[in-house]
Amino acid sequence: MTTSEDRVPGGTAVGAAPLANPKRWTALVFICLAQLMVVLDITIVNIALPEMQADLGFSNENRQWVVTSYTLAFGSLLLLGGRIADYTGRKRAFLIALAGFAIASCLGGAAPNIEMLLTARALQGVFGALLAPTALSLISVNFTDQKERAKAFSIFGSIVASGAVIGLLLGGFLTEYLDWTWCMYVNAPIAVIAAFGVMYLGPEQRAAVRARFDIPGVLLVTSGLVAIVYACSEAESEGWGSGLVLGLFVTGAVLLAAFLAVEARSSHPLVPLRVIADRTRGSAYLAMAVGMVAMLGALFFLTFYLQLVKGYSPVETGLAFLPMPVGVGMFAGGISPKILPKVPPRAIMVPGMLIAASALFWLAMLDADSSYWGMVMPALYVLGVGMGLLIAPAVNYGTYKVADEDAGVASGSVNTAQQIGGSIGTALLSTLAADAAAEYFADHAAGAKSPELLQKAAMVEGFTTAFTWAGAIMACGAVVLAALMNTPKPSPGEAQGSPMAHLG
């Protein structure tokens, strides 16, 4: 008999066997649409950045924050978002997140200056961090049959994995045929449509045990990451050896060390250290973070190269990136899952990182006259191949042999590593690119025949410097991974989850 104390208000009885939601497949459509909105916003503004910068008049130093403010808020708050959804109820969290994301997007579209735009992007990240884990948990509670759940997660993963491509293409079409502001406004109608899904989600459900929030952990990890990203950004104007930059790096390191100390002592940690201390899982998180440095770096700088140097339109730029997701899809969704059960994970991941590094070094040979078909297109495909080999085992082994009570945290940690890696990588590579471009401009200004050609040459020097550093970071990551991840190949019958189900 279920007592009133065992029953969640407005929801199902705790401990009772959940009944299958008869409208679960309809609900899945709206859940996937909501998650797609979150994922495509990582890339949709990339194509619009040149027009954003021209319209709002912000500096090159600030343009990376348009990307970073979203990914940093998203990544650092993802784990807290899952706890909030458990506490408030998943349906309620779903609606709150959709409403907040839509309002933040409209605020960004109406932004008259860079300050409001960055605020809006950060707010998008905050509500995205609530929406992403809520979407995953809604699938779990609505699909109780294991076969149906596996199919649902497969559909969810496939749609989410295509989000980056959709973001690039949609960003190109909206920017070229409407205005860059529609790259923000477009989220509002998507959110409104997704909100209708609440009618099909079944009764409200909360976690059996009300979550406790690790507020000190959230404040420490977020502040530490912001300090490090800000240090990378300020190094462009202040110099790497300046007191401000060094102080920010030290502050960030101290805050992150304090975060680890708090987590070790907390009875309800945001990230139980046992999850990330495992060599296999820790290596997977590191590989995912390093991989995002490369992939988001390539997207960021190639956008400016194609539009400002090669003169591509926004739509042409979006289409130009298609070879990369083709490579990712072929190897992450096709080849990697077939090899994964037969070999140790580093036998796939290390070659994947080295292949991606070679593609970045290839891009580092670009000049203002390089051919798209001869240089950019094959390099993007090779980068996709490398990332495809890396992503599947990294996501899979991010939850390797984890306890049931830590499964959500481990899965969330993969996404967190992905977003944080992209945030720090974009900030770091932007500063290195700006430094190289400024130095080239100063060294060649005296003998320049055309200011326009000099400016393009300086930009290319900055972009290729960023690609070189990204390739070096990826290659070093491969060496570290080869030494650190000593996981043997899976034993016969060992379960391997769907790698794409956790992306985004």
Automatic annotation (TrEMBL):
Q: Listed GO molecular functions?
A: transmembrane transporter activity
Q: What parts of the sequence cross the membrane?
A: 27-49, 64-81, 93-111, 123-141, 153-174, 180-201, 213-231, 243-262, 283-306, 318-335, 347-366, 372-392, 466-485
Where is it chiefly localized?
membrane
Query: Could you give a single Gene Ontology term from the biological process aspect?
Result: response to antibiotic
Tell me which GO cellular component terms the UniProt record holds.
plasma membrane
Q: Where in the cell is it found?
A: Cell membrane
- Which membrane topology term applies here? Multi-pass membrane protein
InterPro entries in UniProt? EmrB-like, MFS, MFS_dom, MFS_trans_sf
Q: Which residues form the Major facilitator superfamily (MFS) profile domain?
A: 27-489
Keywords attached to this entry: Antibiotic resistance, Cell membrane, Membrane, Transmembrane, Transmembrane helix, Transport
CDD domains on file: MFS_MMR_MDR_like
Which SUPFAM superfamilies would you find in this protein's record? MFS general substrate transporter
Alphabetized NCBIfam families for the sequence: efflux_EmrB
Report what the protein is called: Puromycin resistance protein pur8
UniProt organism field? Streptomyces davaonensis (strain DSM 101723 / JCM 4913 / KCC S-0913 / 768)
Species lineage = Bacteria, Bacillati, Actinomycetota, Actinomycetes, Kitasatosporales
